[in-house]
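Human: We require from you a standard protein entry with sequence in single-letter code and fold as tokens, and nothing else.

Assistant:
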Amino acid sequence: MARVEVVRGDITREAVDAIVNAANSSLRGGGGVDGAIHWAAGPRLKEAGAALAPCHPGDAVATPAFDLDPPVRHVIHTVGPVWRGGAAGEAALLASCYRRSLEVADSLGARSVAFPAISTGIFGYPPDQAARIAVDTVRSVSTQVELIRLVAYDRPAYDLLTAALDV
């Protein structure tokens, strides 16, 4: 069973085998964590992502990490759901993002993975609900990943993820 931990910081600075990108379906970069990862990884990430697009909500694909500092070797791109009030299957799609990302990590041989808070930015997913889904899903998935790090960019996200982890 993977060890799950919550940290506060910049996901592009995590010392893990793979980081997960909360991407849009074009995989060409955007705002928030997606923009930060693309900036840190360099322009080749956009080219590699575009070659794999489109990526549909709930799915995940991987590219090399390019200019991200080792030990990061892979960026796993997942497209979270846009919040539409909760009755459009958003919870299942969000859980699928975490599950599929871990499946991709397993296929890459990654032993440590860092996740951002998927869909809680511009996609509008309520952060408290997203934190519970993230923790419940990564705890329940059978994976060869040994360390799953949930990376909170700010204190409110950190507090929500920590509370969900402590339940």
About this structure: Residues 90-108 form the longest helix (19 residues). The beta strands are 3-8, 18-23, 60-64, 74-79, 112-115, 147-152. The chain is about 40% helix and 20% strand.
